[in-house]
Amino acid sequence: MTIDTINLDHYGQPPLPWERARAALEGFAAAPDKPSYLSTGDPDGRPHTTGIGAFWGDGGIYFTSGLSTRKSRNLAANPFCTIAIPLSGIDLVLEGTAAVVTDPERLEHIAATARAGGWPAEVTGDALTAPFSAPSAGPPPWHLYFVTLESAVGVATEPPDGATRWRFH
């Protein structure tokens, strides 16, 4: 993968390395004290943002959603989205394309990862079920989405300071 780095800092700081952002994402799983927010576009162009239970894996972001939710309907019409995540030392906005994961082996792998993290997810058909999920996920079953990153913006919240956009090819 090729990464283009664009320095957004207007105060003379060097660009932030993608490795700093990627290291902050390692092991990330949303929780009440570690929020993440998904933004999609309604068919009429209005933005829609909601908190989601997201986690980092396989070089992108996973999250679940019932197909009848507004976010899933928006993604069916236009799969481009952003996910905002405040992390230790850096705030990130990840931009990419979301797709429903239907591969049984990948679904089982993610369900096992979720169980290890405390969410008792099980694969049912081409989706996940559990006794509970994030309120914004809608009723079960929940489809698993994977966001393939196209770009990201990072703003440092502790030294070394800076702001950077990364584009992934």
TrEMBL record:
Residue ranges of domain Pyridoxamine 5'-phosphate oxidase N-terminal in the record: 37-120
Keywords: Oxidoreductase
Superkingdom, natural source: Bacteria
Pfam family, one: PNPOx_N
GO molecular function, one term: oxidoreductase activity, acting on the CH-CH group of donors
GO cellular component: cytosol
Name of the protein this chain belongs to: Pyridoxamine 5'-phosphate oxidase
Species assigned in the record: Nocardia puris
